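Notes from the 1:1 (GR / supervisor)

We went over the backlog. Supervisor wanted to see one worked example end to end before approving the batch request, so GR pasted a single chain during the call. The sequence is below; no edits were made to it. Supervisor asked that the structure be written out right there so they could see what the output format looks like.
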Amino acid sequence: GKGPYLALRRITNGAGSATDRESLLIVVGNHFAYARDRNHPLPEFGSRLKAGGCANLVDAAFEQEDRASMVHMLDLEGSYGEVCDGSGRVTWEVKKSTLPWKEGRQLIVPNDAHLLDCQGKDVPQTLQIFGSKWKVFECSFTRSELEKMLYIGEMKRSTTIVSKL
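Structure output shown during the call:
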C-alpha cells in the first residue's frame, strides 16, 4: 500500500484491568485498524467441548447457563475506520467493528492522545492514548503530522498531510 504508516502496541503491566489489555493500533494511509484482546483467558470446559474454537466455547457456556464466561469470551474488539473524512478533517471514524455500537463513532477524540518520550527526536518512542501508554513500533509520520492526526495542536490536517494519504 501507499501512504504513511504508524504501528502502535499498548504497553501492559499485567494488571488485567480494562485499560491494560493487549492492543494494537495500525494506521496505513487514511485507514486504521484497532484490535483489543480479551481481558480474561478463555475458560476451560473439559471433555464436554467439541473442537471448533470460540464459537463452540460460547455454545458450551450457553448450555451451562454461564453468562459470565460468554461475556469474557466475546469481550474483544476489532475495528476498522478512516482517520480523515473526505474534506481532510480528522475524525477517526469507525466504519466496521466487532462491536457494532462503535460504528459511526470516533475511535480517538480530542485530548485522548499525548506524545511522550520525544527526547529531542522527531517521532516519539511512546504515546498515551485512552489513558494507556503505547509503544511506537513503526512510524513514517513526522512529529507535526502525528500531532495533527492525534488532535494535538491543529484540529485539521494540512493539505500536505491529506495529499499523502
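Supervisor's comment: The mean pLDDT is 82.
Batch request approved.
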